[in-house]
Amino acid sequence: MPISATLRLDADRLPLLQGDGGYSRKSLREQASYYYSQPNFRSKGSITIDDKPVDVTGQAWLDREWSSQPLASDQSGWDWLSLHFKSGEKLMLYRMRQTDGNHYGSGKWVARDGTARTARLARHHHDTARPSPRSPVARSRPSWRIAIPRLALAIDCTPLNAKSWMGTNFPYWEGPISFAGSHSGLGYLEMTGY
Q1: Which class would CATH give 3-192?
Q2: Average model confidence (pLDDT) across the chain
Protein backbone atom coordinates (compact mmCIF):
# COMPACT_ATOMS: atom_id res chain seq x y z
CA MET A 1 0.00 0.00 0.00
CA PRO A 2 1.84 3.17 -1.15
CA ILE A 3 1.44 6.13 1.22
CA SER A 4 2.63 9.71 0.72
CA ALA A 5 1.98 13.02 2.46
CA THR A 6 2.28 16.67 1.57
CA LEU A 7 1.90 19.00 4.54
CA ARG A 8 2.41 22.68 5.22
CA LEU A 9 3.30 23.61 8.81
CA ASP A 10 2.79 27.17 10.08
CA ALA A 11 3.33 28.61 13.56
CA ASP A 12 2.63 32.07 14.94
CA ARG A 13 4.90 31.62 17.98
CA LEU A 14 8.61 31.05 18.42
CA PRO A 15 9.90 27.59 19.36
CA LEU A 16 9.88 26.72 23.05
CA LEU A 17 13.22 26.13 24.78
CA GLN A 18 12.92 23.08 27.01
CA GLY A 19 14.67 22.83 30.36
CA ASP A 20 16.69 25.90 31.37
CA GLY A 21 17.04 28.03 28.24
CA GLY A 22 17.27 24.92 26.05
CA TYR A 23 19.54 22.94 28.42
CA SER A 24 17.48 19.94 29.54
CA ARG A 25 18.84 17.95 32.51
CA LYS A 26 18.23 14.21 32.50
CA SER A 27 19.48 13.32 35.98
CA LEU A 28 20.88 14.91 39.12
CA ARG A 29 24.35 14.25 37.68
CA GLU A 30 25.75 15.42 34.34
CA GLN A 31 23.29 13.84 31.88
CA ALA A 32 21.65 16.57 29.80
CA SER A 33 20.70 17.53 26.26
CA TYR A 34 19.97 20.61 24.23
CA TYR A 35 16.29 20.59 23.43
CA TYR A 36 13.66 22.79 21.81
CA SER A 37 10.07 22.22 20.70
CA GLN A 38 7.57 23.84 18.39
CA PRO A 39 4.21 22.71 19.83
CA ASN A 40 2.22 25.37 17.95
CA PHE A 41 2.28 24.13 14.35
CA ARG A 42 -0.96 24.19 12.40
CA SER A 43 -0.81 21.59 9.64
CA LYS A 44 -2.66 21.48 6.34
CA GLY A 45 -2.22 19.29 3.31
CA SER A 46 -3.07 15.86 1.99
CA ILE A 47 -2.27 12.22 2.64
CA THR A 48 -2.42 9.83 -0.32
CA ILE A 49 -3.10 6.14 0.25
CA ASP A 50 -3.31 3.83 -2.78
CA ASP A 51 -3.44 6.88 -5.12
CA LYS A 52 -6.45 8.31 -3.23
CA PRO A 53 -5.69 11.75 -1.71
CA VAL A 54 -7.45 12.90 1.47
CA ASP A 55 -7.26 16.52 2.65
CA VAL A 56 -6.13 16.87 6.26
CA THR A 57 -5.76 19.65 8.84
CA GLY A 58 -4.69 19.59 12.46
CA GLN A 59 -2.10 20.40 15.06
CA ALA A 60 1.52 19.25 14.91
CA TRP A 61 4.40 19.14 17.41
CA LEU A 62 8.08 19.22 16.44
CA ASP A 63 10.90 18.30 18.85
CA ARG A 64 14.64 18.61 18.28
CA GLU A 65 17.01 17.22 20.89
CA TRP A 66 20.70 16.34 20.78
CA SER A 67 23.29 15.16 23.25
CA SER A 68 26.73 13.58 23.31
CA GLN A 69 25.83 11.38 26.29
CA PRO A 70 24.06 8.03 26.23
CA LEU A 71 21.93 6.85 29.12
CA ALA A 72 23.87 6.47 32.35
CA SER A 73 24.55 2.93 33.55
CA ASP A 74 21.81 3.27 36.19
CA GLN A 75 19.16 4.51 33.72
CA SER A 76 16.99 1.90 31.99
CA GLY A 77 15.10 4.09 29.51
CA TRP A 78 12.71 7.00 29.25
CA ASP A 79 9.03 7.88 28.89
CA TRP A 80 8.00 11.01 26.99
CA LEU A 81 4.61 12.61 26.35
CA SER A 82 3.47 15.64 24.36
CA LEU A 83 -0.12 16.69 25.02
CA HIS A 84 -2.47 19.14 23.24
CA PHE A 85 -5.37 20.05 25.56
CA LYS A 86 -8.77 20.88 24.06
CA SER A 87 -8.74 23.96 26.30
CA GLY A 88 -5.62 25.27 24.50
CA GLU A 89 -2.82 24.42 26.93
CA LYS A 90 0.07 22.11 26.04
CA LEU A 91 2.32 19.90 28.14
CA MET A 92 5.55 18.03 27.50
CA LEU A 93 6.63 15.57 30.19
CA TYR A 94 9.48 13.12 30.36
CA ARG A 95 10.69 10.62 32.92
CA MET A 96 14.17 9.09 32.90
CA ARG A 97 13.81 5.73 34.62
CA GLN A 98 16.49 4.99 37.21
CA THR A 99 17.20 1.36 38.14
CA ASP A 100 16.83 2.26 41.84
CA GLY A 101 13.28 3.57 41.27
CA ASN A 102 14.17 7.23 41.95
CA HIS A 103 13.13 8.40 38.47
CA TYR A 104 14.02 11.86 37.22
CA GLY A 105 11.22 13.77 35.51
CA SER A 106 10.46 17.21 34.24
CA GLY A 107 8.61 19.03 31.49
CA LYS A 108 7.04 22.25 30.31
CA TRP A 109 3.48 23.51 30.78
CA VAL A 110 2.39 26.00 28.09
CA ALA A 111 -0.60 28.24 28.86
CA ARG A 112 -3.12 29.33 26.20
CA ASP A 113 -1.32 32.68 25.86
CA GLY A 114 1.97 30.90 25.08
CA THR A 115 3.71 31.53 28.39
CA ALA A 116 5.60 28.48 29.60
CA ARG A 117 6.78 27.23 32.96
CA THR A 118 8.72 24.22 34.10
CA ALA A 119 6.54 21.32 35.26
CA ARG A 120 8.83 19.25 37.44
CA LEU A 121 7.59 15.92 38.75
CA ALA A 122 8.04 16.21 42.50
CA ARG A 123 7.68 12.93 44.38
CA HIS A 124 6.86 14.63 47.68
CA HIS A 125 3.91 16.45 46.08
CA HIS A 126 2.29 13.15 45.06
CA ASP A 127 2.92 13.83 41.37
CA THR A 128 2.64 10.72 39.23
CA ALA A 129 3.38 9.93 35.61
CA ARG A 130 3.49 6.21 34.97
CA PRO A 131 1.86 3.33 33.13
CA SER A 132 -1.26 2.14 34.92
CA PRO A 133 -0.53 -1.03 36.94
CA ARG A 134 -3.24 -2.99 35.13
CA SER A 135 -1.65 -2.46 31.71
CA PRO A 136 1.62 -4.14 30.68
CA VAL A 137 3.79 -2.03 28.39
CA ALA A 138 5.31 -4.39 25.85
CA ARG A 139 3.18 -5.62 22.96
CA SER A 140 0.02 -4.03 24.34
CA ARG A 141 -1.93 -0.80 24.63
CA PRO A 142 -0.34 0.73 27.72
CA SER A 143 -2.55 3.20 29.56
CA TRP A 144 -1.00 6.01 31.57
CA ARG A 145 -2.12 7.94 34.61
CA ILE A 146 -0.75 11.45 35.12
CA ALA A 147 -1.50 13.52 38.22
CA ILE A 148 0.12 16.87 39.00
CA PRO A 149 -1.92 18.51 41.78
CA ARG A 150 -0.36 21.99 41.50
CA LEU A 151 -1.52 22.09 37.83
CA ALA A 152 -4.95 20.68 38.80
CA LEU A 153 -4.16 17.89 36.34
CA ALA A 154 -5.39 14.30 36.71
CA ILE A 155 -5.73 12.42 33.42
CA ASP A 156 -5.70 8.91 31.98
CA CYS A 157 -4.00 8.42 28.60
CA THR A 158 -4.97 5.69 26.15
CA PRO A 159 -3.14 4.80 22.91
CA LEU A 160 -5.10 5.08 19.65
CA ASN A 161 -3.22 2.26 17.91
CA ALA A 162 -2.65 -1.12 19.54
CA LYS A 163 0.21 -1.93 17.13
CA SER A 164 2.77 0.59 18.34
CA TRP A 165 5.32 -1.78 19.91
CA MET A 166 8.64 -2.04 18.05
CA GLY A 167 10.68 -5.06 19.09
CA THR A 168 13.99 -3.76 17.75
CA ASN A 169 17.44 -4.07 19.41
CA PHE A 170 16.28 -1.21 21.65
CA PRO A 171 12.60 -2.07 22.41
CA TYR A 172 10.31 0.87 21.87
CA TRP A 173 6.64 1.85 22.17
CA GLU A 174 5.59 4.97 20.30
CA GLY A 175 2.27 6.32 19.08
CA PRO A 176 -0.64 8.77 19.29
CA ILE A 177 -2.82 8.87 22.41
CA SER A 178 -6.02 10.44 23.67
CA PHE A 179 -6.57 11.50 27.27
CA ALA A 180 -9.46 12.41 29.56
CA GLY A 181 -10.10 13.34 33.17
CA SER A 182 -9.58 16.84 34.51
CA HIS A 183 -8.54 17.77 30.96
CA SER A 184 -9.02 16.09 27.59
CA GLY A 185 -7.24 16.11 24.27
CA LEU A 186 -4.76 14.30 22.05
CA GLY A 187 -1.05 13.68 22.28
CA TYR A 188 1.89 11.40 21.65
CA LEU A 189 3.64 8.87 23.87
CA GLU A 190 7.12 7.38 23.56
CA MET A 191 8.55 4.70 25.86
CA THR A 192 11.92 2.99 25.61
CA GLY A 193 13.83 0.31 27.48
CA TYR A 194 10.94 -1.94 28.55
Answers
A1: mainly beta
A2: 86
